[in-house]
Amino acid sequence: MPKTFLVLIDGPMGSGKTTTSKLLNQKLPDTARVALPDIKRLVPNFREDSKTLNTIREVMRAMIETYLKNDVSVVVEQITKADGAHLLKEITERNGATFHGYRLTAPKEIRWNRVLERTKCMMEVSELPQSKIDELAGYFEPNHQFYIDNPIEISETVNTDEFNTDEVISHIINNLTTQPY
User: Fold this and answer.
1) What total of structural domains would you count in the chain?
2) CATH number of the domain enclosing 170
3) What is the pLDDT of residue 25?
4) Most buried of the four, 3, 70, 138, 171, by CB within 10 Å?
């Protein structure tokens, strides 16, 4: 396994980013997890628009840079355009670490059902109000098209419908331990 590394976990809503990044973080010693949703929640009622998302990404970059400078590996969870993935790779290489990108995906219907189920759990309800479903759809639809329009050639695509979470984690850890650096 490389001494210090960054693992990018990218993918559309419902692809398994949070589940994968949290479990990966538990299995990798001396590794920090930096996740866009967690940083976003540090400021209550922080509205999600281009300005706030840029601020969140700046905070994440500073955290990532600091961890890597201090030889702490990082698992990054965020939705990433190609230029964002390249920037993370540059930060990683500048700090003498290795970059490993993974874009998680699954069929749209499966991802949508995952989003609905996790929202029910978070809200502690058995049925979601239509207003919440409409709100989620507003985020989900553009998010789905985003990945068609923004391929990332420096990330490996992993279909989380074909592999369970443990298999995805094992695959990533195996790559960390067997790839030449």
Assistant:
1) 1
2) 3.40.50.300
3) 95
4) 171
Residue-number span of the structural domain to which 12 is assigned: 5-106+153-178
Task: Indicate whether 143 belongs to any domain.
Answer: no
In sequence order, what are the residues at sequence separation of 6 or more whose Cβ sits closer than 8 angstroms to the Cβ of residue 87? Answer: 61
| 54, part of any domain | yes
**Structural domain contains residue 172:** yes
Model pLDDT for residues 19-76, shown as the tens digit of each residue: 999 999 999 989 999 998 899 888 877 777 888 888 999 999 999 999 999 999 999 9
**Contact present, 41 and 34 (Cβ < 8 Å):** no
In a domain, 118, yes or no: no
Task: Give me the residues paired with residue 102 across strands.
Answer: 9, 156
Which residues, in sequence order, are CB contacts of 150 under 8 Å at separation 6+? Answer: 81, 82
pLDDT, tens digit, 9 for 90 and up, residues 108-158? 999 999 999 999 999 999 999 999 999 999 888 777 777 777 778 889 999
> Strand locations in the chain, DSSP E?
5-10, 31-35, 73-77, 98-105, 155-159
If you search the block for the tokens 């939705």, which residue do you land on? Answer: 79
Whole-angstrom distance between the N-terminal and C-terminal Cα of the chain? 9
Cβ pair 114, 45 in contact under 8 A: no
Locate 177 and state its tokens: 């331990």
Closest to 169 in 3D by CA, of 14, 38, 9, 13: 9
Tokens of 40: 């976003």
pLDDT the model gives residue 181: 52
